[in-house]
Specification:
46% of the residues lie in helices and 13% in strands. It is of the alpha/beta class. It has one domain: Rossmann fold (3-Layer(aba) Sandwich), CATH 3.40.50.720. A four-stranded parallel sheet has the order 1-2-3-4, with helices on both faces. The protein starts with a strand and ends in an 11-residue tail after the last strand. Pfam families: adh_short_C2.
Length: 173
Amino acid sequence: MDALVNNAGIEPAHSLEGMELGTWQATLDVNLTGPALMIKHCVPMWRRQGGGRVVSIGSRVWLGGGWTPAYSASKAGLVGLTRTACRELGPLGVTVNVVAPSFLHTAFNAQKAEAAFLDSYVGRFAEASPLGRLVEPVDVANAVAFLVSDRARNITGEVLHVAAGTQLAPAVQ
């Protein structure tokens, strides 16, 4: 196992007041507990082979975002897990990082935003970007490819924002 990419996630939209406990737990189970268990079960292999790479897909929303309290908390927890794991696994030669994209330019996300409640959501993300554009899936893939490569051998415990600069703007609501 040279590299583990934790890329499963769910993002239920709801207010904090309207959130149900089951939604909270399911989101934490998929977005935080799953990556923790994947890392845990790869450690024996990395110990035997003398190293490896972990990249978890986080989100710009770990900085806080509207209508996604469970998702935001789970992605913030993923950053904490990553920083703890990098200290514990570094002596084994394992690097552990997070790629934190913003809203991705996909047909699925555009439909989800329009169906939920924000017909201009996509446009507001592009406007919030200093680059004036949305993040494409290939941008995230390129960041992951870099972090699992030998070129990133001394990068660990980091959050790489692939967000077209939107992490610098207030949360898009």
